[in-house]
Amino acid sequence: MGQEESADHKEVDLAQIQGLCTTFMKECPSGALHLHEFKRIFGVQRESEEESAYMETIFRSFDTNQDNAIDFMEYVAALHLVLRGKLEDRLKWSFKVYDKDGNGRLDRQEVKHIIKIIYKIKMRNSDMNMTPCEVCDRIFELVDQDNDGQISLTEFMEGARKDEWVMDLLKLDVNASGWFIHNWNKGP
Fold first, then answer.
1. Chain segment 106-146, per-residue pLDDT in tens
2. Separation between Cα atoms, residue 24 and residue 166, nearest integer Å
3. Cβ atoms within 10 A of the Cβ of 6, count?
4. 177, 9 in Cβ contact below 8 A?
5. Three state DSSP letters for the chain
6. What pLDDT is recorded for position 188?
7. How many other CB atoms sit within 10 Å of the CB of residue 133?
């Protein structure tokens, strides 16, 4: 296949994707999935500030026309990206998630914001003994090639490919396909 994948990324077959699409139409007969429904479907608890913020960021990244709803075409594109997308496409998507202001460059505040969120979700069971600020500093040290205090898409992609530790943090892959299928199939 020639595609670099994480060890926990499993191929999702067409039948599973068709099932997810059928579920979308059943759960969203209007053809639009709104943020509160997105959070409900994925079991985000109101008291979980980190998960809520993370899901909002994910939702906004999939809402490509910025109309505060994920329509069926955006949903299918999101499914394809998360469940079957190439590493390069998932990295570009991750960059978009980090780039909160949409200016095409990541500053320390944007990186630190996402790192704080995923640190609590992804690193709960990790033996990493760095703070989110230290993680952010290390990412900039390894990735910001021209030392301008910002990370471009090119620096982001190259930095992730060069260093496995950076890749693990930047690609926002928390076993996305398994998590997606498990939570979506649970339903509300």
1. 999 999 988 887 777 665 555 567 888 998 999 999 999 99
2. 34
3. 16
4. yes
5. CCCCCCCCCCCCCHHHHHHHHHHHHHHCCCCEECHHHHHHHCCCCCCCHHHHHHHHHHHHHHCCCCCCCEEHHHHHHHHHHHHHCCHHHHHHHHHHHHCCCCCCEEEHHHHHHHHHHHHHHHCCCCCCCCCHHHHHHHHHHHHCCCCCCEEEHHHHHHHHHHCHHHHHHHCCCCCHHHHHHHHHHHCC
6. 47
7. 12
Single pTM value for the model: 0.73
List the structure tokens of 68.
């505060």
Whole-number Å distance between alpha carbons of 111 and 137: 10
- Whether the CA torsion 50, 52, 58, 61 is positive or negative: it is negative
How many Cβ atoms are within 10 Å of 188's Cβ, its own excluded?
Answer: 8
Residue pointed to by tokens 């979308």:
24
37 DSSP β-pair partners: none
Q: Which residue has the tokens 């994920």?
A: 70
